[in-house]
Structures are given as C-alpha cells and as structure tokens.
Amino acid sequence: MTGRTAFETRYGFARNAVLLSNWRESPFNRWSFQNVGELVPSAPFASASGSEAPPQALGGLLDEKVASANAPETVAAFLQRSDTDALTIMKGGKWVGDWLAPHMEFGARHIIFSISKSFTAILAGILEGEGVFDPEAPVVNYIPEAKSSAYGDASCRHVLDMTVSLDFEEAYLDPESAFARYRRATLWNPGGGSESLKAFLLTLQRLGEPHGRTYRYRSPNSDLLGALLERASGQRIADLLRDKLWLPLGATSEGSIAVDMEGTARTAGGISVTPRDLARVGEMMRQGGMANGRRIVPDAWVRDTVSTGGSFEAWQRGTMAFLFPKGRYRNKWY
C-alpha cells in the first residue's frame, strides 16, 4: 500500500486526474488555475527585475463582518465559502495584507479569465496614444479578411465597447453550441486543433440590428481585439504585454497568456499573473495611468474609460443592465 503524494495531500487529488476536459471544474481548478501552461499552450511575458516583498497577514481584517445573501459573516468565512484562492489588499499604494487558500502558493500565477479583456484594452489605449492604433477605424483596415464576417462593417470602437451586432451566445454548458466550438479553437477543450481561433472568428456572422446600438457581452470580440493590436503594431500580444505594460509597471513576476495552435493569444480570458501584480495594474488605473513616477497609459484614455466614455443607452438595451442600472461599458471596463 502506497501513501499519498505531497501533491495529493495538498490538493486532494492526483496530478494525472487533471485533464483538458475538467481543468476548469472543482476541485481540479485549485491546481490548474495556477498552472494553465501545463494544460494549454501559453506564451510568457517577462517581468521587471527585483523580488517581491514577503506576504503580510491580514490579521484582524479576517474577523470583520461583511454582508452576504443570508446573514453577516466574517471575511474569513466568506473567502472559504466562495472558494476564493487569493486576496491581496492595497491602500494608498501600500500593501495592507495577503490571504491565500491552503492550496495557493504565494507568488504563483493565477488565471484571471475575463480581466484579460481589460488588460488587452489597456494595450489598445497605449498604442492609441502612440499613434499606432486607431480605435475609430473600421476593423477591415487592419484585418481585411474579416470583410465577410460580422466584423466586416464594424469599427474597432464597436469591438472595444462590446457593441458588435454579433450572432453568438455565451452558451457555456451546451456542448453542441458555437461556444463549444470556440473553446475547441482556443485549445481549452478536448477535440481542438482542426480550426484556429482566427479562423473561427472569421466565420461569425452578424445580427440584423446595427452595430453600436446594444451592449452584448461576447468574448470573441476581445480575441479579435488582440488580433487587431497585433496587426496594428506588428508585435505579438505577449511582447506588447511585456514591453508596454509589465516592464514599465514594475511587475515582479512573469506573466503568461494562453495561445492557440497558431500562437494567437487568447486575449478574452487567457492571461495569468500573480495577485500582487494584478493589484499593481489596479493601482496604476487608480493613479490615472501612472506607476513608478512615469506615465504608462494616456490620461485621456483612462478618463474616457472610467469616467466619461461609453453609451448609457447601449448598456440599458443589453442584458446586464440590472447589475449596474446606471452603468456603462467602455474599452472593456465596466
């Protein structure tokens, strides 16, 4: 009789139990969300030199009460009940503390899924400021082969603001849907490799409604944005993340982004970074695009994104208005 391995003791299952068919499911995601590159092809983007300060305990903050659906509960209880992997708190640019689930390693990368969309839009803002990318230009100015797709008469602004009139549903649980085909194209599900992500995007067709009228959350738009930025800049997304964001930001750990069989980046949801480096991006946005005494993102882009831009009317026509009744969506930020 053999004993449990260190891996099994920590995570509650063997490494060979984690498969492409279950890596996003509990309990396997306790490990896979920190190790996406072992399951899905990924491209790294380097960090600045330097080491990370050690973790700081949150202490009494974990005993504070927070509102929940049923009754007040402590922060610690909420973190456990919600299957949170990590919590990092900053205040005024200073670390307040860190909390990690028992299976989470300090300094480990963790996939951030749709926050990847917001990262990609930051790159768009930087390239716009450099005069490399025009957010108001037609998509076909950068990707002529999109002419026969839903994007053939759409602008980059429609892509950025999720107002493309796209005939696509985020049907996460339907194995026969276009969404399942989308996941296979990204190599996130078994059966991929016969259709690339770009090839899939170019098959998508439009609805009858004009572009720009209604906010529709459609992840393929954000993958197309990555392709637009690569065409505009002549650089890969991983290199743009390194040169335009990660190194200037002073990120201390290497990040990565999932790619398909052709190396196309999964900019809709494939970025993995450490919790602290993610917090650094948030702090940079809080500071109006500044970090380490230097400007990383144009001030006008940040103000347009978080304060003045976006169509309230388009948001109200969408299906998510109930979440933020007075909300807007601009440049892949709510």
Notable traits:
10% strand; two-stranded antiparallel ribbon; 10 strands; four-stranded antiparallel beta sheet; Beta-lactamase; alpha+beta; 3 domains; 12 helices; 334 residues
Characterization of this structure:
This protein has 334 residues and is of the alpha+beta class. The chain has three domains: 6-32, no CATH class; 59-104, no CATH class; 111-317, Beta-lactamase (3-Layer(aba) Sandwich). The protein is built from twelve helices and ten strands. The protein has helices at 6-11, 29-32, 75-81, 115-129, 156-160, 178-185, 197-201, 220-233, 237-249, 275-286, 299-308, 312-317; strands at 42-45, 65-66, 73-74, 86-91, 94-100, 110-111, 255-258, 271-273, 290-291, 294-295. The strands form four sheets. The protein has a four-stranded antiparallel β-sheet. Strand 9 (290-291) and strand 10 form a beta hairpin. Helix 4 packs across helix 9 (237-249). The longest helix is centred in the middle third of the chain and has 15 residues, at 115-129.
Topology diagram in text:
Layout: H1 6-11, H2 29-32, E1 42-45, E2 65-66, E3 73-74, H3 75-81, E4 86-91, E5 94-100, E6 110-111, H4 115-129, H5 156-160, H6 178-185, H7 197-201, H8 220-233, H9 237-249, E7 255-258, E8 271-273, H10 275-286, E9 290-291, E10 294-295, H11 299-308, H12 312-317
Antiparallel strand pairs: 1-7, 2-3, 4-5, 6-8, 7-8, 9-10
Radius of gyration: 20 Å
Query: For the record, what CATH class of the largest domain applies?
Result: Alpha Beta
The main β sheet shows up as: 4 strands, antiparallel
The succession of helices and strands, N to C, reads: HHEEEHEEEHHHHHHEEHEEHH
Number of strands: 10
| Uncertain ranges | none
Class of secondary structure makeup: alpha+beta
Strand content: 5-15%
Task: Give me the CATH superfamily of the largest domain.
Answer: DD-peptidase/beta-lactamase superfamily
What is the CATH topology of the largest domain? Beta-lactamase
Shape: globular
Strand arrangement in the largest pleated sheet: 1-7-8-6
- In angstroms, what separates the terminal alpha carbons? 54 Å
Q: Quick check: average pLDDT?
A: 96
Tally of structural domains: 3
Count up the helices.
12
